[in-house]
Amino acid sequence: MPLLNGFRSGAFRFAFLLAAMFAVGAALLLLVVERSISQYATLATDGGLQSEAAILQGEDREGGRASLLRAIALHRRAGGEEAYRYQLTDRTGHMLVDDFGTRSTGLGWGHVTLRDDPQEPGAHLETLKTLGVALPNGGTLVVATDTYDIEELRASLDRFTIAAGLTITLFALIGGYLIGGLFMRRLDRVNDAIARVMAGDVAERLPPIGISREFDTLSTNLNAMLDRIGALMDGLRQVTTDIAHDLRTPLTRVRQQLEVTLGAGSAARYDAGIENAITQTDEILGIFRALLRIGTLEGGDGRQYFEMLDLSDLLGQVVAAHQPVAEDEGKILVAELAADLWVEGDRDLLAQMMTNLIDNAIRHTPAGSRILSTIASVDGNVVVRIGDDGPGIPAEERANVLTRFYRLDRSRNLPGSGLGMSMAAAIATLHHASMELLDNAPGLLVRLTFPASATRPSTDKIGNR
Amino acid sequence: MKLLLLEDDEATRTHLERALGEAGFVVDVCANGRDAIFLGSSSEHAVLILDRMVPGVDGLAVLKALRAAGIRAPALFLTAMDGVHDRVEGLNAGADDYLIKPFATIEFIARVHALARRQPENSIVTTLIVADLELDLLKRSVRRGGRPIQLQAQEFKLLEYLMRHAGEIVTRSMLLENVWHFHFEPQTNIIESHMSRLRAKVDRGFDQDLIRTIRGSGYRIDAPA
Which of A146, A160, A139, A144 is nearest to A65 (CA)? Predict the structure, then answer.
């Protein structure tokens, strides 16, 4: 229904609302103007009648009845079309002057309605305002004036306001319809794109809506969201593939192991075979656990339980735990720790992250290597560095190391799941920390930067379990 | 010693019940939360073993209810979930230990033992003694056969944990969790490296070894028979 598009749109409804508000506003304005004009006109009319009556009262007092009659005739002639009209009744009730052709309206303010021209049939009815006063020489004088001009003014004001209101309302509605149609057309394009995305075309992106900057910001943000969703889906697909590939190999090995054990023949061989199978199963479960953990970490789980903790202290503990291991492997593990650097985080996860990095450094360096762990405050950020002087990682391989199960060719024969680095990266991301792999010249340097926003200097040991 | 076991999976429940029985425990078993609350509050148990996820009233709610009813027995959570919030919620509900499924039976039994023998919090122990080995918690000193032994801080904590659980098997992950507060499995042999240093100081030069390796599970410190 393309014709109805404009009416369905929010823009049209908005224009309709504006038009309605304008109409109400115009009506109110009209009411106010009309009231003040008629008030002003009434005041002017009343003032005129009062002074006319006073003048004629004066004529009657000064010059008597003849002078009054003369004055009335004079005024009538001088006024022409706009002249006042008079009705003069003497003491006995005899009507001396009568411009109305009706009975006396009496003293005080009043109204009288009469034909425009008594001689002409079918003429307009005319309303006169009257003021009756008692005369000094007896009798009653009624002065009247028509209110036609006021009525005329009022009517033309009404016509103008209604015409203007209708025109503007109409324009608003037409504009609303057109703009609404424009919006709908633009949004239809976006909706079509969304429909294509939902139908499975994940590469599809929304066109800019145009019209104004905020709409383009909206479509840009929606596209960013689609990118994020795409990345998450890629991650999920990656995990699925990883599980399929990297768990199939150890599972195959367990299966072979069990097959061999099945025909082993002696209790000792059964035991050995089953023990071997259990060990391998534990390894597989460990990989599962790590994969699930990385998955939940990437989903942002756990941030709500973060607390302030002394990262210097924690790194010190992790290093101390690993020093004998490094020593046994013929490597030197040293720490240079600036004291009392606090970050917001989860103690277990941060300990695991630093353990994974130190584990890596210990396992992937030759005997005699030196591993240096430092923590320092740099521009308000807390920076942890774990560097070794081993073979390092070629620059082009560094990004790969962070992907799950990725292993450098030379370390394929070493034990390890290939998940340690991606787990460390996931933990860093959860803590809003950046993790960079750099050249330690020679060796690998892993630099973790906890932004100042996630850190806070503190002296009391909250969260230090 | 009587334990409470809440586990909804029948195969697991039967297996754990048998393993606990072989370890010398008497077990009240239940398959749902309601029964667990009833059993837990109607008789005394040395340890509460609760599966975190059971249909209906789950292990977390059971523990909260029992704690609210004044049941102070140590609790061990069995859970398949090891996210940060699962851990924090479990500890907040009053769990003393948790074990992530799947686990080795020997690990499970070792942890139940550790909880069951745990000294009440108000009993003050200042000296731990195993045979001629003596650990003074106040002076932070260790002597064997009257001869002082110099230990580093981590070695001291390691020996203290072993001696507090003298005669019991202490697994690698129990040591990681209780001595280093690591709730994960490092890729390197942290425990072995520290243990070999500790043994060199505690056992070398003496007639009998006190610290024994239990193959496939962990360590135990014991007076020689």
Answer: A139
Interface check A296 vs B, CB under 8 A: yes
Interface contacts A/B by beta carbons within 8 Å: 75
* Segment A235-264, tens digit of pLDDT: 777 777 777 777 788 888 899 889 888 887
Instruction: Enumerate residues 172 to 211 of chain B having a beta carbon within 8 A of any beta carbon in chain A.
Output: 180-190, 193-194, 196-197
Tokens 């908005």 belong to which residue?
A14
Task: For residues B88 and B134, state if they share a domain.
Answer: no
Which residues of A are less than 8 Å from B181 in CB distance?
317, 347-348, 351, 465
B171 shares its domain with B211: yes
Domain that holds residue B133: 127-221
pLDDT in tens, A97-120: 877 766 666 788 887 777 655 555
- Reported as type and span, the H/E element at residue A231 is helix A213-242
A321 lies within 8 A of chain B by CB: yes
Measure the CA–CA gap between A164 and A171, rounded to whole angstroms. Answer: 11
* Complex-level ipTM: 0.87
- In CATH, what is the architecture of A305-454? 2-Layer Sandwich (3.30)
Is the CB of residue A156 less than 8 Å from the CB of residue A150?
A: no
Do B83 and B180 belong to one domain?
no
Residue at a domain's end among B70, B90, B116: B116
- What is the fold, at CATH topology level, of the domain defined by A2-153? Beta-Lactamase (3.30.450)
How does residue B140 score in pLDDT terms, banded at 50, 70 and 90?
Answer: very high
Tell me if B136 is assigned to some domain: yes
DSSP letter at B154 equals H
Cα A322 from Cα A312, distance rounded (Å) = 16
User: For residue A350, what is the nearest residue in chain B, using CA coordinates?
Assistant: B182
**How far is CA A202 from each of CA A217, A222, A244, A376, B31, rounded to the nearest angstrom?**
21, 13, 23, 43, 46
Q: What is the pLDDT of residue A464?
A: 40
B67 assigned to some structural domain: yes
Count up the domains in chain B and report the number.
2
Using the Cβ of A379 and the Cβ atoms of chain B, whether some distance falls under 8 Å is answered with: no
Contact A438, A452 (CB under 8 A): no
Does residue B108 sit in the same domain as residue B9? yes
Which chain A residues are Cβ-neighbours of B200 within 8 angstroms? Answer: none
Residues of A in contact with B100 (CB under 8 A): 289
B122 is a domain residue: no
